[in-house]
Design a protein that fits this description.
Length: 181
Amino acid sequence: MRHGEPQQSGLLLGFTDTPSTDAGIEACIARAAGLKIRALICSDLARACVPARKIAALYGVPLHIDPRWRELDFGAWDGAVPADIAADALNAFRNDPVTNVPPEGESWLHLLARVAEALADMPHSALVIAHAGSIRAAICHLLGLSYQQAWTIDLPYNALLSMKIWSGNGAPMAQITGLRT
């Protein structure tokens, strides 16, 4: 599940730790209604962690806070309004985040690697509350999609992407079983 709407919306909020609005937190709690959750995992950033704590308490399940599920680190761009970044630099990053890394930021390949590690440690029937970037990295890793293909999947705030994950030939494999937005 993607976290609820942050209090500072419209910014590149990679590692910037801004909380969700109260309505965003409530939307995440409502989205979790009826799920069969055995464990809950979340990023250590407040916009993911606060709703995760509330949902874990409601369901009586363990909560694992894992910084590997953080958003991409936008480095010097973190917390910036996209319009304030040089258009050519931002477009280069959007078109190829592997070779056009934000200044002092994290590459797409690094994000993919840390999310792959988090997925390898994930228990069964877990709800993960994270960020659009880390969720898309999981999609790429599990489904073999490119960065551009993953961006064709709309992940608005508090979207719930359900996946069935299994081991196949030593590597994880997955199937999308639902998307609620």
